[in-house]
Structure formats: C-alpha cells, structure tokens
Amino acid sequence: MLQSLHIKNLALIREEEIEFSDGLNILTGETGAGKSVVIGSVNLALGARADAGVIRTGEESALIELVFSLNESQMKAVRAMDLPTEEDGTLLITRRISQGRSVSRVNGETVTIRELKALAEILIDIHGQNDQQALLNPASQKELLDEFCGETLAQELTRMGEQHREWQDTQKRLAETEIDGAARTREADLLRYEIEEIESADLKEGEEAELERDYRRMTNAKKIGDAVGAASHVLGGDSGSGNLADALGHARRELSQVAGDDESVGDLIRQIDDMDALLSDLSRSMRAVEDGLVFDQETFFRTEERLNQLHRLQDKYGDDVAAIKRAAKERTERLSFLENMEEERAAALERVEQLTQQMRETCGRITEIRRKGAEELAEKIRSSLVDCNFLDVRFVIVVESHEDQFAADGWDTVRFDIQTNPGEAMRPISQIASGGELSRIMLGIRTVFAERDDIDTLIFDEIDAGISGRTAWRVSEKLGTLADRRQIICITHLPQIAAMADHHYGIEKGLENDRTLTKIRPLNEEESLKELARLLSADQVTEEVLSNAGQLREQARAEKETRRKSGGKKRKKK
Q1: Tell me, what DSSP letter sits at residue 521?
Q2: Which end of the chain is less packed: N or C, by CB atoms within 10 Å?
C-alpha cells in the first residue's frame, strides 16, 4: 500500500508530507484549496507528463516521493522487472522535476518513464473523471471484459494476433501477384540488368578506402615527391653540404680525438652512431616513398574509373558495399518472385484460405469465452451497482460477432447496456448515464475488479460527482466495504463519504509571508467533526450543524461495526 507522499516545491505546496494508512483515507478541503495537486503529484511520481510549469514560483526544481509497502505478489512482479527491492518490501519512488528535464529513481536506481508507468500498473489504481469518460468507449468496455476473462482468453488473443499478422502479410503478398504480364516483363528485365550491374562489379569490402588512398597519392604525386626530396636533401640524402648527415660525421670525428681521455665521451659517440643508423633508415624509407610515386598513366585512369564505378553503384543502391550487396539480394528475391508468380499466387491463396479457417475457429473460441465471461461479469457488476443505490438496475454485457471482419483481437464488439429504471429499454451506458450515474458505475466496476487483482491501493478522484442524499450514503458504504480489503484514498466534497473515513486529512490554502500556500494535515476527531459540519453547512457552522455532523459520524461508525461483526473487516491476504 501507499505509506507516504512527500511533496516539495510543487504548485502551491512548499513542502508537505502525508502518511497514509490502510482502510479509507479521505481528503477534503475548500474548492480551489489544492486537492487536485495531491492526485496530480502521485500521477507525476508514477510517470505522468511533467513540465516546468508545475514547479513552485521562484524554485529551481520540484520533488515528489512515494513510499510503498509491497505484498508478496508485488515483490515478485517488481523483481521480474529487474528493479531493486528491499527485504522488508519497502519501495521508494522519487521524481525530481527541473527546468527542461526530470529524473526518476526507484530505491535509488534511475529508471525510465516507461519503467515507471509499468511499475504503476503493479502498485496502484487511480480513477478520475477521465477514466469515467473512457468507460463510455466500447474499446475500453472490451478491455475490461477481456481483463475479467483472464489467462484463457489472453492465450487465444495471442494466437489470434499471430494468425492475423500472418494473414495480413499473406494478403499483401497475394496483392503483389496482381500485376499484368507486360509490367511484369518490364520489371523483370530491369531487375536482371541491376543484378548483373552489381554482380559484375565484383565488389570487395575495404576496396573503396584503398582506391581513394592510391588516387590521392597519384593525384598529388609531384607535390609529395618535391616535399620528400627536399626533406632528404636537408637530412643528407644527397651531396649537399651543411646537412644533418655531415653534421653528425663532423661531431663524431671531433669526439673521437678525446675518447681515450674520458669514458663518458664514448657514450656520446655511441649515441651519435645510433642517430646515424636511424638517419640511414629514414633515408631508405624516403627513397621507397619516392620510388612508389612512379606510376604510369594507365594505372591512374584505371583507379579513377573504378572509383567512379563504385560511386555510381552507391548512388543507385546504397552507401557502402554491404548495402549494395543487400540491394542485389532483394532484387534477386523479387526477380524469383516474378519468375514464379503463378506458383507464388497459388501458394498465397492456399495460405490465405488456411489462415482464414484458423482465424474463424480462434474467433469462435474467443467469442465463446467472452460471452461466458460477460454473463458472470455483468451479474457481479449488477450486484455491485445495487450497493451503489441502483436498486432496480439491470446490466448486461452484449458481445456481438461480426463474422469475417477479422481484427487482431477477434471479430467481436462489446457493449455495456444498462436499465436504471423499470419499464425503460436497455440502452448503452453512453446514452443514458449522467455524471453521477457514471461515477457509481465506475465504482461498481472497480469494486468487482478489486476482488481479483493484487493491487492494494485505489485512489478515487471525483467519484462523488453528481450524487447526493441517499445515493451518496450508499456510495459511502460501498467505499467503506471496499476499504475493508484495500487501501482507499478518496478526495471528496460530500459529508456522507467523509463521515466514513478511517483517516481524515484536511487540505487548506492560505497566505504566509505574502505567498499562497497549500497545506495538508491529518485531522483529529474534533477537527474531523468540524470539517464534516463545514461540508454540511451552507455558510456558518452552527451547533445544530455540528450535531448533524456528529449524528452522521455515528451512523458511519454503526455501519462499520455492523460490517465488522458480520466478518467484513478482513484484509485480503497475498
């Protein structure tokens, strides 16, 4: 579960830390106090897009830290991602957002945004108005049903995806055989010419670099020869006077006259002899270079023409020898295809028929699994919706097959239909659900799925949109029931929901040193009661309103006690 949230220099928050507990954690505050910043900060820490605009004015960076305690299933999943874990199951996620960049870490190890988002799917479910709107999308409804159907369906969908990809590739290959004879002949002739052009060139790896080197030497032969000749003259390579060779010889003769008077002079003579040997080697090397500059005009023209041939091939087929050879291979394969087109077409037609039959069978199994799962899921959702004050609700999941309209996930469309009032027709939820109804439908669905997954923490934002009165109380009871088995964090403005809190936090906005600040703190019993009264009142918190708040709190406690006695307060074991 989420143990704590630390926020620094984010929006209107200077630095705040919230320690959450299990059960139902409720956050309340005046409109505009900054409740959305709390959910936003969790989303940012878990990989949501961030920009410098979220950094508190005047600060260089913002920091968000989340501390989770992992259950056994989550520990295994995190380790499977090759991310660091602590033995006690503690997981620390940090994200620092600066101008132009952000850095995220998991237990001190830097991670990518993609890794963060994958990690988020293991740790937490966050539900806001965007998720409720997504529920209206048939594709999202199909995803929910497929998730409920589990591994059996997942295996069939994997098989269908592979079959569909091959079917599309084979259809493309079949379409390529629909070319008239004249066009096929023209293309084949061009391919033969290009293949012959490449193969006759007899290309060799590294040849171009060697040719370029030789071409430069031949082009600059006179300049190179003049430079080498001048250097040879200076070093004593010819009969010039005052050069290095003469200087070394003169120095040796002078030293030889006194060699018997001092042993160290002998060392000097040996060094001169070494230098003279090196000079002789250098002179021979220079002569070799000069000899290598002698070439005939035919060699030059042959080198130039070969380079031009290589460059023409590169312009047509690729930047290097490997690319040109790949081009030849592709053309050879295409030519073979054209020359054997009738056989290719027959093979493609046969394979398309085989794959079509395989996909029909796979789609049939997918439809069967979905329809069976749809009945079970629809009943579970209907029962959950009754708890959310849809007392006479009917809910069905319609799975319609569109045979031969193949897609990677089968040929089904999925639609959630609902009837909230007796006597009305069943309609898609997108046509009849108000904002309040949609919030409750989402809560009902999430309650069903919460019983199936290993995620300990659910966050609800705007789950109370558009509801009030008895419906609000039933939603409160539903959240309380869900919190018996999961950690729930819920932002609300309804007193009925706030009254059910196991832990209550207040979000306040105020001024400090002429700067607007948002602060978050846990509320004690008395403060929580006053906050309930504020939510109940239109303006002033009177003694009568406080009394109503107290009654609401007692009603919530009684409901919790009833659940406890009936065995409802049981945390899910992992």
Answers
A1: E
A2: C
Do 456 and 439 have their domain in common? Answer: yes
Q: Answer yes or no: is 120 within a domain.
A: yes
Contact indicator for 66, 44 with CB cutoff of 8 Å: no
For residues 521 and 308, what is the distance between their CA atoms, to the nearest angstrom? 78
β-strands 487-491, 457-461 pairing: parallel
Residue pLDDT, tens place only, 18-50: 999 999 999 988 877 777 788 889 989 998 888
Q: How many CB atoms lie within 10 A of CB 48?
A: 16
User: For the segment 246-259, what is each residue's pLDDT rounded down to a tens digit?
Assistant: 777 788 887 887 77
H/E stretch holding 14 reads: strand 13-19
Q: Phi and psi of 92, rounded to 5°? A: -110, 120
Same domain, 321 and 470: no
Whether 295 and 415 share a structural domain: yes
Pairing of strands 457-461, 124-127: parallel
Asked whether residue 466 is domain-assigned, the answer is yes
Q: What pTM does this model have? A: 0.66
Residues 461 and 511 in one domain: yes
Q: Is the dihedral of CA 289, 295, 299, 300 positive or negative?
A: positive
Long-range residue pairs from 465-470, CB within 8 A, at least 24 positions apart, any chain: 465/129, 465/132, 465/435, 465/436, 465/439, 466/434, 466/435, 466/436, 466/437, 466/438, 466/439, 467/436, 467/439, 467/440, 467/494, 468/494, 470/389
| Sequence-ordered list of residues with C-beta below 8 angstroms from that of 136, at least 6 positions apart, any chain | 429, 430, 433, 438
Hey, is 199 helix, strand or coil? helix
Domain stops at, among 430, 456, 480: 430
SS (H, E, C) 250-288: HHHHHHHCCHHHCHHHHHHHHHHHHHHHHHHHHHHHHHH
Beta carbons of 504 and 26 less than 8 angstroms apart: yes
pLDDT in tens, 139-158: 889 999 999 999 999 999 99
Whether residue 43 contacts residue 117, with contact meaning beta carbons closer than 8 Å, is answered with no
55/100 same-domain check: yes
Residue 561 lies in domain:
2-136+433-565
Q: At how many degrees (to 10) do helices 181-200 and 297-317 cross?
A: 140
Structure tokens at 401: 């097959």
Q: Which of 398, 408, 403, 312 is nearest to 357 (CA)?
A: 403
Report H helices in 52-180.
72-80, 113-123, 129-134, 138-176
Q: Are 497 and 560 in a shared domain?
A: yes
114 within some domain: yes
Asked if residue 313 and residue 213 are part of one domain, the reply reads yes
Instruction: Locate 39 and state its tokens.
Output: 């959910």
| 572 part of a folded domain | no
Q: How far is CA 144 from the centre of its chain?
A: 22
Nearest to 529 by CA among 511, 509, 548: 548
Q: C-alpha dihedral over 211, 212, 215, 216, to 10 degrees?
A: -150
Among 430, 450, 470, the domain boundary falls at 430
* Contact status, residue 475 vs residue 465, Cβ threshold 8 Å: no
- Please identify which residue in the block is written with the tokens 């961030």: 50
Closest by CA to 250, choosing from 227, 216, 276, 228, is 276
How many separate domains does the chain show?
Answer: 2
Percent of the chain with pLDDT over 90: 32
